[in-house]
TrEMBL record:
One of its GO terms (cellular component) is cytoplasm. Residues 143-492 form the Aminotransferase class I/classII large domain. Keywords: Aminotransferase, Pyridoxal phosphate, Transferase. It comes from Protea cynaroides. GO terms for molecular function: kynurenine-oxoglutarate transaminase activity; pyridoxal phosphate binding. It comes from the Eukaryota. The keyword Glycoprotein does not apply. This is Aminotransferase class I/classII large domain-containing protein. Its cofactor is pyridoxal 5'-phosphate.
Length: 500
């Protein structure tokens, strides 16, 4: 039988009693038309001769004369301050109830599929918040200002370069660490930006997006129980990559309004077991840019304590109020830094997943070893196109920055007019706001309300902290959308969102 239990907050979740192994559905036969399948992510309850849905609505679909009822038993537990993640629907069992529409109604049987299995190092990680919010956006017809992908296409000259490479037959495996032309283009761009001369053959590794560069760096250079310091809020893949590497994570929280680094807290966190400090500048999700004083403080700590730096710089061309500074360019830092970047954000081609890591040979060796057994190689024709993109004149980047400054102004001014407390964003295409003027208990509740009742998507930031309580008052919006989409989202919020 299906038993319903009640959580502390009043919600229900289902469990399965395997004895007896058969279920009598006679009482709810009217609700299960023959020849239909009920689809849904949570379990039905059988009350008063009808199926009542727990969670989102069940949707019937017709498949000939067969009839199968799929009942997924799941738990949806909201995070507590002692848990890292929001628990999403996580199947503990799958009950499949099959009926065959014959002249004499057959008694249904219960089949139990094995529970989901996952390694302990990843068991606390659920479906990413970006996937959850994007799915809700589609379901409710909401404008997606949550996930950071543009709703406009990249430059024609880059796409044409990819098409040309395909037609020229550049379609087989690329060299593991990159097509030579792209390695050279990355090295050339890095020299122009930082003044550093690197060997494209020995110090540049092409990866499948910056995310793979991050994972390869962690797996290739971090040993189990090494300590790695990160700054919260942080891009969620950092924690997962470090968990896969077996690292011990120390988190330093950046707090509004300016999200400055608490230098004394950082100094206290560094120990004899600290292997690396992971930074992201410009910073996702806050839009903060690490200033030269903060970067020098990090550099001094790393040199004094023989600590590495992993620097995620994917938003380096989206720096609006000051020039981006790569920490590898500071005295004594190149030899202990892995600099990671990608094509997607700068050229609005996030689906291409072309990234790279730049590091001295003694660090490149480890990350290349990991890369060799993660993806080995990255899309060949897209690498040729990326090389052409990176050689574009600086006028492209200047125009890109102007466009994003205009988009940012639309969103920031609109959010302020709606009633949010908007925090400064000096880079990236994100802005963080305080949602508390609208009276919802936390960031997750607010984002759900915003999607369902207002029709706009934002990202709850609590998922970017080791302690979710630190982010419960903040949500993130993105402005990497066309101007009309941003205006429409602001109009919806002005019309339907009210301060409480």
């Amino acid at each position: 039988m299906i038993a319903w239990s009640r959580l502390d907050d009043g919600r229900q979740f289902g469990s399965v009693n395997l004895s007896p192994p058969r279920i009598n559905l006679a009482k709810c036969s009217k609700t299960q038309p023959k020849g239909r399948t009920w689809h849904g992510g949570s379990s039905p309850s059988f009350q008063n001769g009808r199926i009542e849905r727990i969670g989102e609505m069940l949707r019937p679909s017709i498949f000939g004369s067969t009839s199968t009822t799929v009942v997924t038993l799941s738990k949806s537990l909201y995070k507590s301050s002692s848990k890292r993640r929001i628990n999403t629907n996580y199947p503990s069992a799958m009950a499949t109830i099959s009926t065959v529409p014959i002249e004499k109604e057959a008694e249904p049987t219960l089949k139990i599929n094995p529970p989901v299995q996952v390694a302990k190092r990843l068991e606390k990680f659920k479906t990413t918040i970006f996937t959850q919010m994007s799915m809700l956006a589609i379901k409710h017809g909401a404008i997606n200002l949550g996930q950071g992908f543009p709703n406009f296409d990249g430059p024609e000259f880059v796409k044409e370069a990819a098409i040309r490479a395909i037609r020229e037959g550049k379609n087989q495996y690329a060299r593991g660490y990159g097509v030579p032309d792209l390695n050279s283009a990355v090295a050339g761009r890095f020299r122009k930006d930082t003044g550093l001369v690197v060997d494209p053959e020995k110090e540049v590794t092409v990866t499948s997006g910056c995310t793979e560069a991050i994972v390869a760096t962690m797996l290739g250079l971090i040993n189990p129980d090494d300590e790695v310091i990160i700054f919260a809020p942080f891009y969620d893949s950092y924690e997962a990559a470090l968990s896969m590497a077996g690292a011990k994570i120390k988190s330093i929280t950046l707090r509004p309004p300016d999200f400055s680094i608490p230098i004394n807290e950082l100094k206290a966190a560094v120990s004899k077991n600290t292997r690396a400090i992971l930074i992201n500048t410009p910073h996702n999700p806050t839009g903060k840019m690490f200033n030269v004083e903060e970067l020098n403080a990090i550099a001094s700590l790393c040199i004094e304590n023989d600590v590495l730096v992993f620097s995620d710089e994917v938003y380096d061309k989206l720096a609006f109020e000051a020039d981006h500074i790569s920490i590898a360019s500071l005295p004594g830092m190149y030899e202990r830094t892995v600099t990671m970047n990608s094509l997607g954000k700068t050229f609005s081609l996030t689906g291409w997943k072309i990234g790279w890591a730049i590091a001295p040979p003694h660090l490149t060796w480890g990350l290349r070893q990991a890369h060799s057994f993660i993806t080995f190689a990255t899309s060949t024709p897209l690498q040729w196109a990326a090389a052409e993109a990176l050689r574009t004149p600086d006028s492209y980047y200047e125009e890109l920055k102007r466009d994003y400054i205009a988009k940012k102004a639309i969103l920031v001014e609109g959010l302020k007019a709606v009633g949010f407390t908007v925090y400064p964003s000096s880079g990236t295409y994100f802005v963080v706001v305080d949602h508390t003027p609208f009276g919802l208990e936390n960031d997750v509740a607010f984002c759900e309300y915003l999607i369902k009742e207002v029709g706009v998507v934002a990202i709850p930031t609590s998922v970017f902290y080791l302690n979710p309580e630190d982010g419960k008052n903040l949500v993130r919006f993105t402005f990497c959308k066309d101007e009309q989409t941003l205006k429409d989202a602001v109009d919806r919020m002005k019309e339907k969102l009210r301060r409480r």
